[in-house]
Amino acid sequence: MSAFFSRRQLDYAVAMANETRAHVALVTGDLITGARDPLDSCLAGLKALRAEAGLFGCMGNHEIYARVEDRVEQAGAQQGLRFLRHANITLPFGAARLNLAGVDYQRLSQPYLVDAEKLVIPGACNILLSHNPDVFDVAARQGYDLTISGHTHGGQVRVEILGADFNAARFYTPYVDGLYRKGAAGNAGKGSSTIFVSRGLGTIGIPARLGAPPEVTLLRLRRV
Question: How far apart are CA 58 and CA 87, in angstroms?
Fold first, then answer.
């Protein structure tokens, strides 16, 4: 939320998410842009998310810039939204186990996912929440089956010229929006790993999107 994204817009997006009747609701960071933005209102809006197995999130870079990581963690917990900060939780679904792990924003100048492999549980479906998607190569090597990220805004402003996709996110990650997989095609569940990068809701820099509309996404996990 910021001067360019209102509580009314957030409430609309939360209502859309609730219509999916998801088992788990996930928020991948950047709740606000700066320290003067309405963080408490944002958290109050997210409190309305409904998911039978719980609400979980990870921290984005703007939580760091605004110096509100601890505040977000504590206030979120009071409202039923647990932010996973180099932590994990195992959720049972019948005979299956979903191991949900989360990390704070991974700075470009430092090694990615240090010790995050310790959060992986053998035999479970291991899912990593990481705000920035450029950690995917490391997450795949560490044994995560699925990484869920945001950060890129889907490029926010995308222009195609002679078949080439031009957008700012390409300067720091090859994973701009949607699904990407490592491992041979048709090899899901046998050493492959997948990332989903959400385009998210808000904007940065300019209050505009081109070729990268905002989204609320429902992901379906299937045993293979």
Answer: 10
- What residues form DSSP beta bridges with 147? 128, 195
- pLDDT, tens digit (0-9, with 9 covering 90-100), for 118-170: 999 999 999 999 999 999 999 999 999 999 999 999 888 878 777 777 777 88
- Summarised one tens digit per residue, pLDDT across range 161-201 is 777 777 778 878 899 999 999 975 445 555 799 999 999 99
CB 151 within 8 A of CB 196: no
- Element of type H or E holding 174: none
Statement: residue 96 has pLDDT above 80: yes
Residue pair 185/130 in contact (Cβ under 8 Å)? The answer is no
Contact 55, 46 (CB under 8 A): yes
Contact indicator for 52, 23 with CB cutoff of 8 Å: yes
Q: Domains, the chain, ranges and CATH?
A: 7-197 (3.60.21.10)
Phi, then psi, of 52 in degrees rounded to 5:
-65, -30
CA angle 125, 131, 135 (to 5 degrees): 70
Whole-angstrom Cα distance, residue 61 to residue 134?
A: 13
